[in-house]
Amino acid sequence: MHHILVVEDEEHLAIGIKYNLEAEGYQVTTVPDGPTALKAIEELAAQIDLVILDLMLPGMSGYAVCRSLRDAGNGVPVLILSARTLAEDRTRGFDVGADQYLMKPFDLDELLSRVRNLIARHATRLVHAASTATAPSMYAFDDAQLNFDTFEVTVRGQPLRLTSMEMKLVRYFVENEGRVISREELLENVWGFENSPTTRTVDNFLLRLRKYFERDPARPRHFLSHRGAGYRFVADGPPA
């Protein structure tokens, strides 16, 4: 039975979510604040298959909770459930490592669909990770060195701190080096969007990767755009 942690300070909403998830066959634990959530995840460890996380929590924001999880190397799927509707709120959520973002008020069927898909994707990733456990976690190109296990990155000898989502995107590019990847594929496989919403998320993240890794971000050699087709990563790009 999959175990879901619901972090929600509105008691009536937490009870409603718990009731509907349990009706679908999930085990559900609810907590009202961030510190209690982190303690529960630490105590339950690998038993948690998904975290449904509100942003506006007493004492510690959902952003801080998610960042703490990712900084600790915990890859449990995080679904943010928030009344915040601004684009910058969603972007910040992805920046701290959330997998998906669902705005309140939400449709119950959509919530259940996202829960099913996030848990299924996480299970697939765990199987894939186990089957490739001996594969190297280090990667280098140009003057950048990356460790995908520890999130340690250096560029031109200087340490660089990337968010969980940025590392996830870089890894996807590395695993598909040389191939043009569509925007829809990235949104689905990196961000977990199923319906490819109209968003500049990929473009914004690509600009940040160029700023981090390219010698001249205005004339990229590694993280390339192909108009109307998608994006491509090339480790040994042509001279700028």
Explain what the structure shows.
The protein has 240 residues and is an alpha/beta fold. It has 2 domains: 3-131, Response regulator (Rossmann fold), CATH 3.40.50.2300; 138-233, Arc Repressor Mutant, subunit A. It is 42% helix and 20% strand. It is built from 8 helices and 11 strands. The protein has helices at 11-23, 34-44, 62-71, 87-95, 108-131, 164-175, 183-191, 201-213, and strands at 3-7, 27-31, 48-53, 78-82, 100-103, 138-141, 144-147, 152-155, 158-160, 223-226, 230-233. Strands 2-1-3-4-5 form a 5-stranded parallel sheet, sandwiched between helices. The chain has a 4-stranded antiparallel sheet with strand order 6-7-8-9, with no helix packed on it. Helix 2 (34-44) packs parallel to helix 3 and helix 6 packs across helix 7 (183-191). The protein is elongated, with a radius of gyration of 19 Å. The chain starts with a strand and ends in a 7-residue tail after the last strand. 28% of the residues are buried. The model has no long low-confidence stretch (mean pLDDT 86).
CATH topology of the largest domain: Rossmann fold
Mean pLDDT: 86
* Widest β-sheet, arrangement of strands: 2-1-3-4-5
What is the molecular shape? elongated
* Helix-strand category: alpha/beta
Order of helices and strands: EHEHEHEHEHEEEEHHHEE
* CATH domain class of the largest domain: Alpha Beta
**What's the end-to-end separation, in Å?**
53 Å
Largest sheet: 5 strands, parallel
What's the number of extended β-strand segments?
A: 11
Tally the helices: what do you get? 8
